[in-house]
Amino acid sequence: MKKTWLLGLGFFSISITWALYNAFVPLFLDNFVAHAATIGFLMTIDNYFAMFLQPIIGRRSDRMRTRFGKRMPFLLVGMPLAALFGALIPWHTGLLTLITFMILMNLSMSLYRSPTVALMPDMTRPERRTEANGVINFMGGVGSILAFAGGSYLYKQHSSIPFLASSIITIICLIMLLYFIKERRDALPLVQPDDSDVEKSSFKAEWTVPTMLLLGAIFFWFFSYQGVEALFTLYGTKKLGLTDDQAAFSLAFFSLAFVIGAIPSGLLGKRLRKKRVIMAGVIGLTVIFASISIVDSLLGLRIMLLIGGVFWACININSYPFIVALGKDSSIGTRTGIYYIASSLAAVASPPLMGVLIDFFDYGILFYAAAAGMALALICLLFVKEQQPLAHPQ
Fold this sequence. Notes:
InterPro entries: MFS, MFS_dom, MFS_trans_sf, Tet-R_TetA/multi-R_MdtG-like. This is SLC45 family MFS transporter. The protein contains 15 helices and no strands. By secondary structure, the protein is mainly alpha-helical. It has one domain: MFS general substrate transporter like domains (Growth Hormone, Chain: A).
């Protein structure tokens, strides 16, 4: 379990970077772009890269053989580049330079996101992966809290400081991962198949009916989550009259509850089965999103976000181990990639579509649309049959 906490450093740095990006980049774009739909579209740049590159990179990492391992080379290239371009974002001189830095940072992130996530099942027995995912997402949640809470304070000092801090943290996390994690030594034997095993596990073979249904559910709950995350600061400022830092800080309540619920959600998924815990989270978050639509006070909003964060933990902690469990260990990187196809496709579609709804109605429609997405996720999930994990050699 010690190595699980160390692996969480990769997710910790990713979460800080994305939290700051989603909280403050819409505010930068709002200085140049008039329509919420356009801002929503520009906020999906990362997901276009994720949708097309991460399945390829995930499968490529399944086949990679180097002295650093099969996942670590992608971290060695992607993390320093992401740190550099992320630090440059607030130094834009106009819309063109802002979009250029956004594209370069997102391309760099796509190089190492799937391999970073795939390290956990590489080094964790199947029956412990849900619990381990809880630990890793706990680390990610701590990163989001630091980003939303500390970032909002640093942003008031100067808009560049939170991004610079995030870049420094990313480099420190990379150094620690390289020092403490030796992939070739620490990976489970069965997770290091020979080349013939990897070749037999074709990309097409991964698209089974249970996998497709689960991907449908993943698409719809990420459609809700990503739309809310990308447009929340604008919702807070334009609908509730909050300041920029109040809106960004409010997201810390959702992240705080996610952190609190991360490890318990993993333990519940192991004890009660992943599907049951995910369904409870989907139902609960549907109710919360619908309820937020009628809340008009800052206190009420933050209470709802606290409750919603717990339900999101039930969903998010168990979903990745769920989809990995539907395949073989020789295809962990590939299935990580197709997991990101669903989540990235949702993230591509959600902000612009929700932006169109906002332009047509007003910002009050945001959480009603999010509740509808969660309801559709529940319908898909009802038809997915969970498989018991096979025992893994010690």
